[in-house]
Amino acid sequence: MPQTHFEWKAELGSAFNTAYNAQLGNVTYYVTSRDYGHPAYLEVRDPRGGLKRLDLSNYHKIEQAKQACERHFAALMNKSPKVGKATKPRTVYEKAVRDFTETAQQLARLNQHFRQASFAEFEMLMGLDDEVLKRYGLPKPTVKRALIEVYQTVMLDQQR
To answer: Cα(51)–Cα(49) distance, rounded to whole angstroms?
Structure first.
């Protein structure tokens, strides 16, 4: 993913309190200096001109606030190839893969032995019983294919 450079611009007309902004597409990040700290927030314009605001937090130093904005934008970019929007699964299979991946990542963080599991152990530790299979309504061979995909993504990628 290409690295996006934040170009912070000082806002004019703020004598005592300083303010900076950085615009990236339809998202503008703001960092201001107030008596009580340095709030960081962003505003997004939708195609019809509507404005949405998200307050990130209040920071002790202005550099911390700028870094928080940059981290927020980087996190948005890692979610999806689309700017700021996480992609929704289009099929039940994609939802199952996403859900199984989240579960496997949580188990890998919590259990050291899970990280070295073979596929058979991985399948057993994931605990996919008939109730789970009914929830997705997928046939067993399709669930097995989803588990293989998750195993390759979570288990094999972390070993590299």
So the answer is: 6
> 117, 110, 124: which is closest to 155 by C-alpha?
117
pTM for the whole thing?
Answer: 0.46
Give how far Cα 124 sits from Cα of 93, 99, 114, 116, 129, Å.
20, 16, 11, 13, 9
Nearest-10 crossing angle of helices 92-110, 119-126: 100
- Concatenating the DSSP letter of every residue in the chain gives -PPPPP--EEPTT-SSS-EEEEEETTEEEEEE-BTTBEEEEEEEE-TTS-EEEEEEEEESSHHHHHHHHHHHHHHHHHH-SSTT-PPPPSSHHHHHHHHHHHHHHHHHHH-TGGGG--HHHHHHHHT--HHHHHHHT--HHHHHHHHHHHIIIIIIHHH-
The CA distance from 132 to 107, in Å, is 17
Return the sign of the alpha-carbon dihedral for residues 80, 81, 82, 87: negative
User: For residue range 88-116, what is the model confidence (pLDDT) as tens digits?
Assistant: 777 888 888 888 888 888 888 777 777 78
Q: What are the structure tokens assigned to 28, written together? A: 């503008």
Amino acid, res. 159 = Q
